[in-house]
Amino acid sequence: MAKSVKSNLYDDLKRQILTMELDPDADLDEASLSERYGLSRTPVRDIFRRLAGEGYVDIRENRGARVIPMNHATLRNFFLVAPMIYAAIGRLAVQNFKPSQLSDLKQTQERFRAASQNMDALAMVLENNRFHEIFGEMSANVYLQPSLGRLLIDHARIGHTFFRPRNADMKRRLQLAVEHHDSFIEALSIHDEDAVVDLVFEHWELSRENMEMFIAPHGLKADALIGAPTTQSLEKSP
């Protein structure tokens, strides 16, 4: 029973961080979480440590745990390295994926499609995140997977506006994202490595402008515009 409650707390905190129900830099109240979930302080601290190891939480000595913050330096680094890591993950996924993982990807895509049709923003965030997590699992690379996991946390948080379209163009982009996922699955199925990498950059550019809307007040738009072509040219260079 205790293990199940711990799992619920772990899953709930991850979901709330990814969907921005918990703001970046928000303090996590150990006492209130212990009471709400009927757990002692020790298992709650265990969950905090696990989430810290995965990049969701920051634990400060004598100050408790907080949701991992987003600042100028971390976001600039995100925009600089995300496309390169996504492309490397894509190449390795083509080389190493298992049939069961492709099946999981297809099922996740169907849930993502349904969420997009219902305009369920929270479900879209979670299913999109899971779709790209599966790519990391397919890559079977112990060095890149943790980096991907950390990137996906901020990608979900920065890009949450993408799943709440406010005009026809944003709705068109969202539909194109759904189609990209279908194309990823098709390219994987035929082991087309170059097609997967091309899709990585198309998919990245599709959401980048929306992410810039979120970070513009922090003065990061110029950094983002500098980072994207640089990373793409690196990947495409012979």
UniProtKB/TrEMBL annotation:
Domain of life: Bacteria
Boundaries of every HTH gntR-type domain copy: 3-70
Keywords of this entry: DNA-binding, Plasmid, Transcription, Transcription regulation
InterPro entries in UniProt: GntR_C, TF_FadR/GntR_C, Tscrpt_reg_HTH_GntR, WH-like_DNA-bd_sf, WH_DNA-bd_sf
PROSITE patterns: HTH_GNTR (PS50949)
Pfam name, any one: FCD
Molecular function per GO: DNA binding; DNA-binding transcription factor activity
The keyword NAD appears for this protein: no
PANTHER family with a match to the protein in the record: HTH-TYPE TRANSCRIPTIONAL REPRESSOR NANR, TRANSCRIPTIONAL REGULATOR, GNTR FAMILY
Protein name: GntR family transcriptional regulator protein
Lineage: Bacteria, Pseudomonadati, Pseudomonadota, Alphaproteobacteria, Hyphomicrobiales
